[in-house]
Design a protein that fits this description.
It comes from Streptomyces xiangluensis. The chain has 490 residues and is of the alpha/beta class. It contains 15 helices and 15 strands. The strands form four sheets. The chain has an eight-stranded parallel barrel, surrounded by four helices. It has a three-stranded mixed β-sheet with strand order 7-9-10, with helices on one face. A hairpin with a 4-residue loop joins strand 13 and strand 14. Helix 3 runs parallel beside helix 5, helix 8 runs antiparallel to helix 9 and helix 14 runs parallel beside helix 15.
């Protein structure tokens, strides 16, 4: 992505700092359904997440995204917060049913006007808009017609991509097709802990392929509509999979999960073919005949960078008894999101954890970045999500102290810098998330934001981590240690 080069301020005397390259992008990120609210405003129709969240028992406490953080009405305030943070880019997603309510046909101009106004305000503040076309909010009408397991959904997505590019291509230079298609396919259609809540392992594999195909078709559509300078990408939640021991059966379990978590996407996207071991591992479920001639060539489009989301490593072994996927970090279900991996057990990694129960392990991010460099040496990388949920609260002084998050961010940014020094081409880092928000199946019970949101009133309160991150973004430097409490700015 392209960002303006910023000068790096000198470090205070007697302070050891880690200095990032000039021009390194410092950003923050959100997703439409998690923050916008206004679920039926200006022509928007239900997405699969509207339907799912309104289904009793699906989301903790019966929470929905109907209001969320009301970003649809409070976006000006949120842009000012980003300006105060000093970030150079903002990654956000378009709501497909707000732009194209039924998933087909013409756009709704009021929906597009919202994103036009948002991007204009960002640009006025010197913040580059980074648009994700799809962050899990499939129009419900397309799910009613079969959803991602059906090939036609990929065609509908390409049409939507072209429509969005025509509307916003004069303002937006950096585009991401899909966010974490693994979650869309395997949590949405395999374990059912995400919308649409289906539990069919073959449907999950079909969905994975059609999401890949949708990406390829969307990149073609974007290239046809956008200026040559525009950049296209995809964001993957690449799992850093570790074997519990060096025993051959545990190593093979890690290989099997790596195929399902990662190479089902990186294979066709970056190498032009599905890995043979994945096809063999899942042969008892499907012959993959839904992959047609020419599909992998369509999927294998040139990309300007690869978006990488990382939160925690994945630890697996061969199952010694009844296999368990309950420690895979993706939510509890009687159904597995890992088709053909019934003989794999998941384990909670050692060490401290976040409020999600995820292990805090920056070495996983470093190892992942080094692996990507080894596997795809010519592919620039962008850390498109990294962050942590903790049990934040407003103290009697009206402040939100979150030293655990500061420590988490410091450790992971140190890992990013270490990878940069080792020669990994990393273009930037996006903190997840700008705001506390609707955390999918967990509702409003988990807080990832740098900014605390009081949900009854919508009030925004920057946490100590927001002030700390603002210092890092403004100076391009990472102080030694945890950086202090960050109370001196914002």
């Amino acid at each position: 992505m392209t960002t303006a080069t910023r000068s790096v301020a000198p470090a205070p005397e007697n302070t050891t700092v880690t200095r990032f390259p000039q021009g390194f992008t410092w950003g923050t990120a959100t997703a439409a359904y998690q923050i916008e609210g206004a679920a039926s405003a200006d022509g928007r129709t239900p997405s699969i997440w509207d339907t799912y969240s309104h289904t009793p028992g699906r989301v903790r406490n019966g929470d929905t995204g109907d209001v969320a953080t009301d970003h649809y009405h409070r976006w000006r305030e949120d842009v000012e917060i980003m300006a105060d943070l000093g970030v150079s880019a903002y990654r956000f997603s378009l709501s497909w049913p707000r732009v194209q309510p039924t998933g087909r046909g013409p756009a709704v101009e009021k929906g597009l006007d919202f994103y036009r106004a948002l991007t204009d305000a960002l640009l006025e503040k010197g913040i580059e808009p980074v648009v994700t076309l799809y962050h899990w909010d499939l129009p419900q009408e397309l799910e009613d017609a079969g959803g991602w397991p059906e090939r036609v959904t990929a065609d509908r997505f390409a049409d939507y991509a072209a429509l969005a590019a025509r509307a916003l291509g004069d303002r937006v230079n950096t585009w991401t097709t899909l966010n974490e298609p693994w979650c869309s396919a395997f949590l949405g259609y395999g374990s059912g802990v995400h919308a649409p809540g289906r539990t069919d392992p073959v449907a999950a594999l079909r969905a994975a392929h059609h999401l890949n195909l949708a990406h390829g078709k969307a990149v073609q559509a974007l290239r046809a509509e956008l200026p040559a300078r525009a950049q296209a990408s995809i964001t993957l939640n690449i799992h850093h999979v570790r074997a519990l021991t060096e025993a051959a059966e545990d190593v093979d379990a890690a290989r099997r999960i790596d195929a399902l978590a990662n190479r089902v996407f990186t294979g066709p996207l970056l190498e032009g073919q599905y890995p043979q071991d994945l096809l063999q591992d899942t042969a008892s479920l499907t012959d993959w005949s839904f992959v047609r001639d020419g599909d992998t060539a369509t999927i294998h489009q040139p990309l300007d960078f690869l978006g990488v989301n990382y939160y925690t490593p994945t630890l697996v072994s061969a199952a010694t008894g009844e296999a368990s996927h309950g420690s895979d970090g993706h939510g509890i279900s009687e159904h597995s999101p890992w088709p053909g991996a019934d003989n794999v057990a998941f384990h909670r990694p050692p060490g401290s954890t976040t409020a999600m129960g995820w292990a805090v392990d920056p070495t996983g991010l470093y190892d992942l970045l080094m692996r990507l460099k080894a596997d795809f040496p010519a592919m620039p990388l962008l850390i498109t999500e990294n962050g942590a949920a903790f049990d934040d609260y407003v103290n009697p002084e009206g402040e939100v102290a979150d030293p655990e998050r500061i420590a988490y961010l410091h450790g992971h940014l140190s890992a990013v810098h270490r990878a940069l020094v080792a020669g990994v081409d990393i273009r930037g880092y996006f903190l997840w998330s700008l705001l506390d928000n609707f955390e999918w199946g967990y509702g409003y019970s988990k807080r990832f934001g740098a900014v605390y949101v009081d949900y009854p009133t919508g009030r925004r309160i920057p946490k100590a981590s927001a002030r700390w991150y603002a210092d890092v973004a403004r100076t391009g430097t990472l102080p030694d240690g945890d950086g202090g409490n960050g109370r001196d700015r914002v």
